[in-house]
Amino acid sequence: MIQIDDAGSGSLLGGTVIGVIRTETSEFQYDVIPLEYYKGENFDNKSYINYVVTIVEEIFQNLHVKKEEEIEICRGYMFDVLDLWLSENGYKFTRTEIKEPLQSKIETAFEGYAIQLGLPQKFISYTKYPFHFHRILKWVYADYENRSLLCKTGWKSWKKFGNLSIEYNKESIKSNNIICLKCYEVIPKNTTVTAITYYSNKLHKVFVHNECI
Question: Which branch of life, at top level (predicted)?
Answer without folding.
Answer: Bacteria
